[in-house]
Each structure stands twice: as C-alpha cells, then as structure tokens.
C-alpha cells in the first residue's frame, strides 16, 4: 500500500487511477462531470418521463455532480443515493450536497459495487452508471448487472453511459495519447475489443444478455472548440487526465519514451485558437420486467 493510500484510508481497487486522494483527479472528475452532462443536454435527455423516477441510485458516482444535478432538476425525487469506492471523492460530493441544501434528499455511501450493492431488493426506480469502463473489467459485467436487476423494482430502468476514446481532434498529440489509453484499456481487460468503442459498442448486448427488456440506445456527439466555455473545460480535463492516467498507461503499455514530449506538444496544440475536438458517447437503457 502506498503512503497516499494509508493517509487517505483509500484501498486499492480496479479504478484506473489508484491514487484517488490525488486532487488533480478529483478536479478532473468534477470538470468532466459538468462538461459531459451539459454536452448531452442534461441529466436524462433521452428519457421521455423522468418525473416517474422517485428513487435513484448512481453507481460509481465520482464527485457526485450528476446526482446533485438530478436533485436540482427534479425536486419530486424522494431519494437519491450515490455510491463509490473513494472516500475522498464522496466526502467532496457530500459537502457539495450540504452546501446546496440538498443534504436531506441526497446521500453518498462508500461501497464497492463489484462485491455487492448493499441495498434491499427492489429499492430503486432508476439505476445510473456513467463511465463504468474506468473500473470495470469485461468479466465483471455479468455479476454487476445481476446486482442492478436485484436492486431495481419491476419496471425500473438501468441506464449505462460510456464514451469512445477520442474520435476526432485537431491536436495530433492528443490523438496519440488517446491511442495509448485505448491500448491500455484493452490490455488491462477494461475493453471488450481493441477499438475506440471497446465498451460502448457492447452496452445494448450486455443489457439484453443479462435480463433487461426493451433495450434502447442514444448516441451523442460532443463538440469542443477553443475559446468557448465547453472548450476550456475540455482543455482542463485533458491536461489533468494525461497526467493522472500516465501510470495506468505505463503499467499496461510499457514505458513510452516520448510521453512527456507528447504531453507538452498536446498542451500547445489544444490551446490554439483553431483547436477542435469531438467525443462520442452512447447511452443504453433497459427495463427490469
């Protein structure tokens, strides 16, 4: 166990950044949360009647941004619970909920979803998971989806959102770093295929195969341009992510001799006035019958 894990009380798990006391990673997740929700058009853009969900569970909730925005957007929600493995991130999320006077409706619990979701059967109307690829390996999906079915009530919805590794960018260095991350995801067992959509392409199949009905999907393309608020968030996410994910890439791809050179090149390229990038996300959802 590293010193940082001893100090923070964090335990090693399969999340791709082992040092979850890292403030850079916390800030990256906070920025990414806001950036992705806004780019998708809100917390539940593809759901025709979000008001019917009264009890919501967010698995792997990170810094809590999605769940807190759910509470703000839908005041009718009775219970909103976020679970994650990192005490550091959940302490931050809990503080945000209290500051926004949502503490009575929103709660955060330290919980390892890969072991068990510690809730009674049929506890929730909606179960949300976003970017599970950051901690889930391919062989862990069946058990987790079984847990999703168990804690959902009949008629409840399981909603999964995953992203492709960057599909377009005017920064050649960004694309090279993304390719290294893609390779690391596949080598570590987080991706089903070595392609950029190594998880997102499997979501419909996974939900259908493991017992959900009426499975549907929605694809989102998020565009980022320099000198826009969204573009600035993207740049901050990229700057932090390329640092905090470097040990994960080194572990699974090997030492990349020119990594620092690529990182510095990326910093220059993504801050150019003509910088553009496109990300693709896919949400899939199914019903527990």
TrEMBL record:
Pfam family, any one: Methyltransf_25
Gene3D superfamilies: Vaccinia Virus protein VP39 (3.40.50.150)
InterPro entries: Methyltransf_25, SAM-dependent_MTases_sf
Domain of life from the UniProt record: Bacteria
Domain Methyltransferase: 56-156
GO biological process: methylation
Protein's UniProt name: Class I SAM-dependent methyltransferase
UniProt organism field: Ktedonosporobacter rubrisoli
């Amino acid at each position: 166990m590293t010193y940082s894990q001893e100090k923070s009380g964090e335990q090693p798990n399969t999340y791709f950044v082992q040092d979850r006391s890292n403030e850079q990673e916390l800030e990256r997740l906070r920025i990414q949360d806001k950036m992705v929700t806004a780019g998708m058009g809100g917390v539940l853009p593809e759901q025709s009647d979000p008001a019917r969900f009264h009890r919501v569970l967010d698995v792997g909730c990170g810094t809590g941004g999605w769940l807190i925005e759910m509470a703000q957007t839908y005041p009718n929600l009775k219970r909103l619970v976020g679970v994650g493995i990192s005490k550091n991130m959940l302490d931050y999320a809990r503080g945000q909920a209290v500051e926004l006077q949502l503490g009575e409706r929103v709660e955060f619990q330290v919980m390892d979803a890969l072991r068990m979701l510690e809730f009674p059967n049929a506890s929730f109307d909606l179960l949300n998971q976003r970017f599970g690829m950051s901690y889930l390996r391919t062989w862990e999906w069946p058990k987790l989806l079984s847990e999703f079915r168990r804690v959902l009530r009949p008629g409840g919805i399981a909603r999964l959102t995953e992203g492709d590794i960057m599909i377009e960018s005017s920064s050649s260095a960004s694309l090279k770093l993304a390719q290294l991350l893609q390779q690391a995801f596949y080598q570590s067992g987080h991706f089903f295929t070595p392609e950029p959509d190594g998880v997102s392409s499997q979501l419909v199949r996974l939900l259908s195969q493991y017992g959900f009905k009426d499975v549907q999907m929605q694809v989102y393309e998020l565009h980022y341009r320099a000198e826009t608020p969204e573009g600035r968030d993207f740049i901050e996410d990229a700057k932090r992510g390329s640092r905090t994910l470097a040990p994960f890439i080194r572990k699974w791809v090997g030492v990349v001799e020119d990594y620092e050179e690529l990182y510095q090149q990326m910093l220059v390229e993504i801050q150019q006035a003509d910088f553009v990038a496109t990300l693709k996300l896919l949400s899939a959802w199914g019903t527990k019958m």
